[in-house]
Amino acid sequence: MVERRSPKPEVGGSIPFAPAKNIFIMKNPLKFIQDVKQEAFKVTWPTAKETVQGALMVFAMAVLASVFFLLLDQILKFFLEIILKVSI
Fold this sequence. Notes:
This protein is mainly α. The chain has a domain at 46-87. The chain has two helices and no strands. The protein has helices at 29-42, 48-87. The longest helix is centred in the C-terminal third of the chain and has 40 residues, at 48-87. The mean pLDDT is 83.
């Protein structure tokens, strides 16, 4: 069996027999929950207008993609029918 080493020897965990060196063990769950709460307050949530605009853009792109694939399907169907008629 060939031993494979990480290109960065100080980084562990890249192979099964070299476990990661810095494993985080949560010592205080209450501190963790407080930190999560603080980070949640830092999040910039979208406004209602931004949410509606985003949803409309997703809907418009879905409609455009469906029309594109419908046209592509019809074009390929047309050429396939021509090829099949010629070969018979």
